[in-house]
Design brief:
This protein is α/β, with parallel strands linked by helices and 455 residues long. It folds into 4 domains: 5-39; 62-118; 133-201 and 228-299, Ribonuclease H-like superfamily/Ribonuclease H (Nucleotidyltransferase, domain 5); 314-454, no CATH class. The chain has 16 helices and 15 strands. The strands form 4 sheets. Strands 1, 2, 3, 4, 7 and 8 form a 6-stranded mixed β-sheet that branches. It has a 4-stranded antiparallel β-sheet with strand order 9-12-13-14, with no helix packed on it. Strand 5 and strand 6 form a beta hairpin. Helix 2 (22-29) crosses helix 3 (33-39), helix 5 (87-98) crosses helix 6 and helix 14 packs across helix 15 (416-427). The radius of gyration is 35 Å and the shape is elongated. Pfam families: HTH_3, Mu-transpos_C_2. Residues 125-300 form the Integrase catalytic domain. Residues 11-46 form the HTH cro/C1-type domain. This is Transposase.
């Protein structure tokens, strides 16, 4: 029985000053005789807690302990926290597989003791200004043009000041990875001496953790240009980059809640950058001064930015097909029909596809991350449609921009082919030759075509 200080004082007083027996004290205070016996001689005090000494039990053999440890090892082979052994499940398996006869409470105690023994200890880390930055990718959802999209957002956090940069992408590929580094360096106004992150396939081609033996060619180029080194974490060792691991969750819960609703990825990234800039007013509990005050110290020792920024775009040299299309990662994009059969230069960035011929940009498309999609610019085909007007109602580029019901209304009119072609030329600002820099949106095109047909 646990007693308070007042009761303890009464037991001691009655025993020492009044000379009462333990039995008499027990009756007078209405407590057990064992409690009186424990405290009357001053051998124990109620304000000190004795260490619990568990009784040894014969049912918990070395075989049982080895079985429990193997369950722990099996759990460590994957990272699904919600699908690991509980003490109750271990007890069930012990009964089924080893014929264990002990109670569940015994196994819960042993599991708790063994987990405490096997729990990994971590060394607290400290960094000098400009010494390192930790990086990672996280996932979140946002509404872009009314459609819910799953995005990848890149985080870079300076280890000394705790200042960070975040940028969202549609994918976690090499172009996005390289662009994220460059955007981060521009945001900070300098380059940390090294980065700390996972063994991302976009950076590492051979090896793991401390045993990375080969990096990708383009990442080596980026490192050489900005003069930083890379440190790779061991697999499933988030503690080695705990600053950015915490940041990923912080950004998702704060900057991404409520779920953003924007018209473009650029608009979302502008909002995220503003959020990053506002973080300099924060204070980190384990550090003196604000993030901004510490960043002002760190910024002075960051490596300077090069005069020319590395281009993260992927370069390819495809040949334009007879349908005036080029292919990139199963998706097809249109170019002006004048370039059919010619080799062009395709530059694939994180969010756009640009096409060049002899250093002149001839096409520009939003990058599609789906599979087997075709993206047309209606302006690329108008010159061809002037000579093949009969195909206009079945032309894929036209159908992508003009709603089906509008096409049917034009098809029902006398001279509908010429009327639709004339409108497409006018809506693109075309007179004699196509102008690919003006691309009507589907909504505006739909409204104007409806008005034209109704008139």
């Amino acid at each position: 029985m646990k007693i308070d200080l007042e009761l303890y004082e009464q037991i001691r007083h009655l025993h020492l000053h009044d000379g009462m027996s333990q039995r008499a004290i027990s009756r007078k205070l209405d407590i057990s005789r064992n409690t009186v016996s424990k405290y009357c001689n001053g051998e124990h005090v109620p304000w000190e807690r004795k260490e619990y000494s568990s009784r040894s039990t014969t049912v918990v053999t070395d075989e049982v302990k080895d079985f429990i440890l193997k369950c722990f090892e099996e759990d460590d082979t994957h990272s699904f926290k919600k699908q690991k052994h509980t003490a109750t499940r271990i007890h069930q398996r012990l009964q089924d597989e080893l014929g264990f006869t002990g109670s569940g409470s015994t196994i819960r105690r042993v599991v708790r003791e063994l987990r405490n023994k096997t729990k990994e200890a971590f060394v607290p880390l400290e960094f000098d200004p400009g010494e390192a930055a930790q990086i990672d990718f996280g996932s979140a959802y946002a509404y872009i043009k009314g459609q819910r999209k799953k995005l990848k957002f890149f985080c870079m956090r300076l280890c000394f000041s705790g200042h960070f940069f975040v940028k969202a992408y549609y994918a976690e590929n090499e172009e996005c990875f390289l662009d994220a580094h460059i955007s981060s360096f521009k945001f900070f106004g300098g380059v940390p001496k090294r980065t700390i992150f996972d063994n991302a396939k976009v950076a590492v081609s051979e090896g793991l953790g401390a045993y990375v033996t080969k990096e990708t060619k383009r990442y080596c180029e980026l490192k050489a240009h900005y003069q930083f080194a890379a440190t790779y974490c061991n697999p499933r060792s988030g503690n080695e980059k705990g600053l950015v691991e915490n940041l990923v969750g912080y950004v998702r819960r704060n900057a991404m809640v409520p779920m953003p609703k924007v018209d473009s990825l650029d608009e979302l990234n502008a909002t995220l950058e503003s959020y990053c800039q506002g973080y300099i007013e924060h204070s980190i509990a384990s550090r003196t001064g604000t993030v901004g005050e510490n960043f002002s110290i760190e910024k002075r020792v960051l490596l300077p930015l090069p005069l020319y920024h590395y281009s993260p775009e992927k370069l390819l040299y495809p040949e334009v097909s007879a349908y005036s299309l080029i292919t990139f990662q199963t998706n097809k994009y249109s170019v002006p029909t004048d370039y059919c059969g010619k080799e062009v230069c395709l530059k694939a960035g994180p969010s756009e596809i640009r096409v060049y011929h002899k250093n002149e940009m001839i096409a520009n498309h939003e990058r599609n991350y789906g599979k087997n999609h075709r993206t047309y610019d209606i302006g690329h085909y108008i010159k061809l449609l002037e000579t093949k007007a009969r195909a206009i109602f079945n032309a894929a580029p036209v159908r992508q921009y003009v709603p089906k019901d509008v096409l049917q209304m034009y098809a029902s009119k006398h001279g509908g082919q010429k009327l639709l072609l004339a409108y497409l030329k006018e809506s693109n600002g075309l007179k004699e030759t196509p102008d690919i820099t003006v691309i009507p949106t589907q909504l505006n095109l739909y409204d104007q075509l409806i008005q034209e047909v109704n008139s």
